[in-house]
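> call design_seq(struct)
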């Protein structure tokens, strides 16, 4: 066996996760761990898995991600692993501390409130644009996104775990808003807050948030700009309350 062949084999995951049989029927974006890694770069595939684990609470704020554990789990060499870790650092989901490697980013209460203020501004504006772009086709899309939300919340109610939205709500909202510049600034802010948004769903058992998300979707589907902005603000305020943060946005 040549050295080149040996290195290629070492950089392949030890096993390939199976594709969920219901994924096509639900028309939901597949999590990175269920995708075939050979279709993507090793770095991109692993970075996707790390993002999902951070957002769903598998990795907690302040927790260190150890390269040796990733090498053991996935069978990758140091290069792809370090590049994947750098990708989540660039996303703002983790930070690299001297002598301590990469840790999941931890925010103080004040930092978190400030981040949610930015999130609210983006969410209100996106909701306004989406409502202004009201059309029969968009009204039809409301039914599809609510089906996705129903399935995710039902899983949360049944298991008490992560709602597994897979970015569907954000993608629907951004598509409805139709603003490319907004799309470019959305991801980093929303990813940083999703860690805490998902935690609030779990803590509050999703009851109030579920109704408030549907209020937002319905207001956009009806083309009601004022109601859409108000729903975005109420939803954000409820999230802050569920997280036990002192302060308002």
């Amino acid at each position: 066996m040549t050295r080149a062949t040996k290195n290629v084999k070492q950089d392949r995951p030890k096993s390939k996760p199976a594709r969920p049989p219901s994924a096509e029927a639900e028309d939901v974006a597949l999590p990175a761990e269920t995708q075939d890694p050979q279709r993507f770069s090793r770095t991109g595939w692993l970075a996707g898995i790390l993002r999902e684990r951070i957002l769903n609470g598998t990795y907690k704020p302040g927790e260190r991600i150890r390269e040796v554990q990733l090498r053991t789990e996935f069978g990758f060499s140091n290069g792809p692993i370090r590049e994947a870790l750098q990708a989540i650092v660039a996303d703002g989901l983790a930070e690299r501390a001297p002598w301590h490697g990469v840790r999941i980013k931890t925010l103080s209460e004040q930092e978190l409130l400030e981040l949610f203020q930015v999130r609210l501004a983006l969410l209100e504006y996106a909701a306004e644009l989406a409502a202004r772009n009201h059309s029969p086709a968009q009204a039809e899309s409301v039914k599809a996104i609510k089906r996705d939300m129903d399935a995710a919340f039902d899983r949360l109610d049944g298991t008490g775990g992560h709602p597994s939205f897979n970015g569907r709500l954000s993608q629907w909202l951004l598509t409805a808003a139709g603003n490319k510049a907004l799309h470019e600034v959305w991801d980093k802010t929303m990813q940083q807050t999703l860690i805490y948004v998902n935690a609030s769903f779990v803590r509050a058992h999703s009851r109030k948030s579920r109704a408030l998300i549907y209020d937002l979707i319905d207001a956009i589907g009806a083309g009601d700009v004022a109601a859409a902005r108000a729903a975005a603000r109420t939803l954000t305020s409820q999230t802050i309350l569920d997280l036990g943060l002192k302060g308002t946005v």
